Amino acid sequence: MCWTSLRYKTLACLGIGGLLLCAACSSPSPLLPGDGVATALPPAVQPTSPPKAQVEQIELVALDTFPVQVHVLTKGHLPDGCTEIDRVTTGGDLSSKWLWVEITIKKTPRVLCATEPVPFIENVPLNTRGLPAGTYTVEVNGVTDHFMLEVDNVPQGVSSTAQDVVQVDMADAGLLITIPAGWQRVEANVPFFNGAPLGNGAWSPDGGVSRIGLRWMDITTGWTPELLLEGDIEVVGRQSLDLRWAGAVVYDVLAFNPDSVQRHIIVPYRDVIAYDFYAIAVDEAVLQSLMAAQDDMAYSAILHGTPGAGSAIIRGVVWKDTCDIVEGQPPSEGCVVTDEGGYRADGQFNSQEARLPGILVELWSGACPGSDLLATTISNEAGEYRFEALSTGTYCVWVDAQAEANATILGAGRWTYPALDISDITVTLRDIHAEVYAYFGWDGE
């Protein structure tokens, strides 16, 4: 097996290849690329967004196979000897031929740590199987490179499923999946969960009962994989898998009911949506014949687009940033000195400060100041607001202190967060299930 450097080169390798990803992957499991370019949380609550590794160089590498398998050889530095790679996530936007990788890091407690930066090298496989011909941009933590596919990257002979495959765009699920060519789309018998129907798509090699499929559903706190399993079913085995694009523990579940034997690859993605790549057969022998296609569907899935009408969220808090000045006493905690020698609130959110209910918050399209007003909302009793069901893209969140509804509540004062005298925040949602925070701090007189 030879390796070919791909920096600005054309890929047109031929041969026999397998899946880009395999069930035995042992690399760190992932998170997602910039949920929003600006996660606008005040400094006191910033840790909700994991830190990213410092990437200095990437090199695109291909195995001499067809379909072409592309890896990203990533080089960079960790801040010190107590920091390690936490998660590696891959995904992409097929409409713009953009593939991304995000590498996040975490601190590991140790007795002794090198204080100097520590170099790292991470080899990351990309989901290139089934991609159409064209030039693709690859971005890893802000560092980009390009490669070109001269022909559609679809197997023309033997694949891991011993069949040609076709790509199916499950737009409502935000996934592009591969299905064996010639398999028939069959009735999925959409089940219900808590009164809400699950999205569903199923395919059968012969149009019969045995089939593979994809289901998905919104999830909440306390969710477990078994909630996706319907009817009178007995779980006989469950193990964890490492699925690079998933960003969470993936469950491989074997189960039976009176009519079938089932295998489910269940992916709780970012605690917002759960995907179930399933295979159902009349007996174990038939199930075994479906599992290669099921694995292909799950491991080569590509995240793209936005499920349904959109499921991204922008949320935050409008709070009263406090600096108490009492004559004859030093300023309270939370005060900073102004350029004029006075004091103002520090723009640091803490749980002891008052929230501001009843504030009108506006959402505009595009970077601030925005082009079109999309929605408005009012902060609740806890000062919280949220905009839901958003598609990927760039938005401007704005609180106008001069608006009649706000001026009555805010009175005289100035904004201290997101910046001094600034009350709008540009947020870019790249993740199909992003949840981005944008806070606003007001120092009232």
Please describe what this structure looks like.
41% of the residues are buried. This protein has 3 domains: 147 residues, no CATH class; 139 residues, Mog1/PsbP, alpha/beta/alpha sandwich (Protein Transport Mog1p, Chain A, 3-Layer(aba) Sandwich); 133 residues, Immunoglobulins (Immunoglobulin-like), CATH 2.60.40. It is elongated. The N terminus is likely disordered. It contains 2 helices and 32 strands. It is mostly beta strands and 445 residues long.
Give the number of domains: 3
**Which strand order do you get reading across the main beta sheet?**
12-15-16-20-19-18-17
Number of strand segments: 32
Rounded mean pLDDT is 75
Q: What's the helical proportion of residues?
A: under 10%
Shape: elongated
Rg over C-alpha atoms, rounded to the nearest angstrom? 25 Å
Low-confidence stretches: 1-41, 43-48, 156-163, 192-197
- Measure the end-to-end span: 71 Å
Please describe the topology of this protein.
Layout: E1 3-5, E2 10-11, E3 54-63, E4 69-78, E5 83-93, E6 98-107, E7 118-125, E8 134-140, E9 143-149, E10 165-170, E11 175-180, E12 184-186, E13 192-193, E14 196-197, E15 199-204, E16 211-218, E17 234-241, E18 250-257, E19 260-269, E20 273-281, H1 284-299, E21 302-303, E22 312-320, E23 335-337, E24 343-345, E25 360-365, E26 373-378, E27 384-390, E28 393-398, H2 404-410, E29 413-417, E30 424-429, E31 435-437, E32 440-444
Parallel strand pairs: 2-9, 6-8, 22-31, 22-32
Antiparallel strand pairs: 1-3, 3-4, 4-7, 5-6, 8-9, 10-11, 11-21, 12-15, 13-14, 15-16, 16-20, 17-18, 18-19, 19-20, 22-27, 23-24, 25-26, 25-28, 28-30, 29-32
